[in-house]
Design goal:
The protein contains ten helices and 13 strands. The chain has about 400 residues and is an alpha+beta fold. An eight-stranded antiparallel beta sheet has the order 4-5-6-7-8-9-10-13. The chain has a three-stranded antiparallel beta sheet with strand order 2-1-3, with no helix packed on it.
Length: about 400
């Protein structure tokens, strides 16, 4: 949190739900691309390759459907065949349900609006947005599945040290869930999470096994006002999820998160971190599927207790103005640095989906230091980037 299908996924902070931009040849749309689910190295490449890649992008439009399907997998894949792709899809659909249910319970009044869609080339997604609730100003929780074909140059850009590439285009599958939650109360923090899985189809001489695969994702917290107990609670849940699998995961992915969510032109961190990882395939595939599942299932216990505690905290206009300024920073990061969002904007993705991660309201005030609110809570932390590390 942090490149590509166009819909619900983001390597980082932005939600950008379901307008898949697509890599394509002059004659055929080929690669679904999600601004909120970036496969990082498709963007983070040399200027020459970036120019070449971006110039080959077009959009394959989604088609809205009237009801949520049982699965977005192709029938030829087997809807419940025990494969990693089918189990990952089932997991993100279940997480979407559980997170949305928990958020509606916290809000009390707001309900998620759901749009389901499919794509001609295979796959589809479900976007859910709650707006102007009692607790949440805007909350999006979205899933997406993409099938496509990568040109050889895109595959080489997407994966370092390619050794098994056969001539010609590379069929691929990608799925993910992405969410950004913006509460109304200035003392309740914004949350972003995103988990995704990518694989290329098996070579003909090894049917049944993906040629290449990797996981990506993360969960991060962006408060306007810092409550040390909340930050410690949030990070303790991330650490607990990581430690179940490898004690090196939490410090490794925490640093990755801190490094990614950095607003260079402000010399500021965007938020107080969490965990972030991408292109993860250096462990057993089953272990990493379980790890991604554990992290996704940790979202509710990490976040909901904080919102429950802060949602009714009294606040003044000064507190709200400070929240709006901090949201301005959030927007700056998403529009300037977030790889998924910037790719979607440059390649003609669906704007409503790309910008769904942004809050309804924000503020940029000239010389805003002149009206900084007085901190009743942890005044020594005002405006500072403090390292919170769980021991």
């Amino acid at each position: 949190m942090p490149p590509p299908p166009t819909a619900a996924l983001s390597s980082s902070s932005s939600l950008c739900l379901f307008p898949f931009s697509s890599y394509s040849s002059p004659k055929k749309t080929q690669l679904g691309f999600c601004p909120s689910f970036p496969f990082t190295r498709l963007i983070n490449v040399t200027p020459t390759r970036r120019l070449m890649t971006c110039s080959a992008v077009s959009i394959e439009k989604e088609t809205l459907i009237s009801h949520r399907p049982h699965s977005f997998l192709r029938e030829t894949d087997g809807l419940d065949d025990g494969s990693v792709r089918s189990r990952f899809l089932r997991m993100i659909m279940e997480v979407q349900d559980s997170v949305c249910g928990a958020l509606e319970a916290v809000d009390g009044a707001g309900k998620f609006k759901e749009d389901a869609w499919t794509r001609p080339g295979g796959g589809g997604g479900i976007s859910r947005v709650l707006q102007d609730g009692d607790v949440f100003e805007k909350a999006g929780v979205n899933i997406s599945v993409v099938y496509g074909v990568m040109p050889p140059e895109a595959y080489r850009a997407a994966k370092a040290n390619v050794t098994d590439q056969k001539p010609g285009p590379v069929p691929f599958f990608a799925a993910g869930i992405s969410s950004v939650l913006h509460p109304k109360n200035p003392f309740a923090p914004t949350l972003h999470f995103n988990y995704r899985y990518f694989e290329t189809d098996a070579p003909k001489d090894a049917p049944g096994a993906p040629r290449q695969w990797w996981f990506g994702g993360g969960t991060d917290l962006t408060p306007s006002y810092i409550f040390e107990e909340d930050v410690k609670h949030f990070h303790s849940i991330q650490k607990k999820a990581c430690d179940k699998f490898d004690p090196s995961f939490y410090p490794r992915f925490k640093k990755w998160c801190d490094d990614y969510f950095y607003i260079k032109h402000r010399d500021e961190r965007r938020g107080l971190g969490g965990i972030f990882f991408d292109d993860l395939n250096d462990n057993d595939q089953e272990m990493l599927l379980s790890f991604a599942t554990e992290c996704a299932n940790s979202v509710v216990p990490a976040y909901v207790p904080i919102v429950e505690k802060r949602k009714n905290t009294p606040f003044t206009e000064s507190h709200k103005a400070w929240q709006q300024l901090r949201r301005g920073r959030y927007i700056e990061f998403n529009l300037v640095y977030d790889r998924g969002t910037t790719f979607g904007l440059k390649t003609g993705g669906r704007i409503e989906s790309i910008l769904v991660s942004l809050p309804l309201t924000a503020r940029w005030e000239y010389d805003h230091v002149s009206f900084l609110p007085s901190f009743s809570f942890f005044p020594s932390l005002q405006g500072k980037n403090i390292p919170i590390i769980c021991k």
